[in-house]
Amino acid sequence: MRWLCAVVTIFLLVVWALLRIKCGKRYEGLRELPMEGLRLRKLGEPLLLLIEKSGIASRFPSLMFRIQRSLQRIYGMRYSAERTLLFMGEMLSYSWLLLVGGSLITGFSGDQTGLILGFFLAVALPAAMVSDLHKKVRAREQNIMLELPELLNSIVLLVGAGETVQRAIIRCVESHRGDVNHPLYKELRIMTSEWEGGYSFQQAFENFSKRCAVQEVSLFTTTVLLNYRRGGADFVLSLRDLSRMLWEKRKAISRTRGEQASSKLVFPMVVIFLIVIVLVGTPAFMMLKM
């Protein structure tokens, strides 16, 4: 078993070294591409070449589409193919490290448990990374949905006080300068910068809706674009109707999050209950034996 693990380890290291030499500076431009959570960019560059040459994207189109779609919702349409490649490289890098680590542990100890555990984690960790990516997308959508009714209420108040829609949105963005990482205000800041860069109100609003990729934001965008030219009471009334509907959806999301939080507490409560039983029951059991 030890010689087999040594062969596997040497093979993995040699393959990585050959790919490192072959790829050269091909992926240097991707090092500066902003993307959170990537810790093995340099280690994964040779594996990016392996992904391209092996045609993984064509063999697993459904998986690649889901990953790319999720990354587009988080980071936008620009450089989505490059980010998908980086994410795949990160997954393979972790798998490669786990296989090498498992082989080394088995080689030193002689126990095949290390190799089995390394192989199992090499398969399970990429699946967990994909699942975590989809959870981030759902959390982003829920954060947008939770804040959208507040934004809409502020716009209704400002427009009712005589502000234009553009100026009302700018004031709302300025009042939330501290929410740098909130997805809704982040996209709104991009939209206001597009206005300053020469985009029309309609075009900037449509781009904002595409970047958010949330049905309620699309409804908000459509309502504003259909009614903002009219102004007056009709526009404010349409926004108020939309606000009431969004508040109901916000309540539903809050209830869902509350139920998820309570379900997560079940396991710790069971563990605490078992610990209490052991602490209380052990002295009684020992007294019975005496």
UniProtKB/TrEMBL annotation:
The chain crosses the membrane at residues 85-108, 114-133, 265-288. The keyword S-adenosyl-L-methionine does not apply. It is a multi-pass membrane protein. It holds the Pfam family T2SSF. PANTHER family: INTEGRAL MEMBRANE PROTEIN-RELATED, PILUS ASSEMBLE PROTEIN. Residues 152-283 form the Type II secretion system protein GspF domain. Keywords: Cell membrane, Membrane, Transmembrane, Transmembrane helix. It is found in: Cell membrane. This is Type II secretion system protein GspF domain-containing protein. Its main location: membrane.
